[in-house]
């Protein structure tokens, strides 16, 4: 799934003045949307047993989410968020 956060998104003011960056929680929100598109329950409560943020995403930049199902979990994925070939974040998402 590809996405980009518009420069006028309401999450950006104050995060950070003069050099806005997309907050990690907004990136994780897109991971949930990708998981739901892959068949995750729409109203699930989510656990994030592992998340690493490695590089920032600026407003207007394109990113993509790659999901890999976790075999031992009914609704669970390993995820990677990339900008081109650069890894921005990775981790696991599991339905509680």
Automatic annotation (TrEMBL):
Residues 2-91 form the ApeI dehydratase-like domain. SUPFAM superfamilies: Thioesterase/thiol ester dehydrase-isomerase (SSF54637). Pfam families: ApeI-like (PF22818). This is ApeI dehydratase-like domain-containing protein. It comes from Marilutibacter maris.
């Amino acid at each position: 799934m590809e996405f980009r956060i518009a420069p006028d998104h309401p999450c950006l003011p104050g995060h950070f003045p003069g050099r806005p960056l997309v907050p990690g929680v907004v990136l994780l929100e897109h991971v949930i949307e990708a998981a739901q598109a892959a068949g995750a329950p729409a109203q699930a409560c989510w656990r994030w047993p592992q998340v690493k943020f490695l590089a920032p995403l600026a407003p207007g930049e394109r990113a993509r989410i790659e999901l890999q199902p976790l075999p031992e979990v009914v609704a669970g994925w390993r995820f990677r968020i990339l900008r081109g070939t650069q890894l921005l974040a990775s981790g696991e998402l599991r339905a509680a």
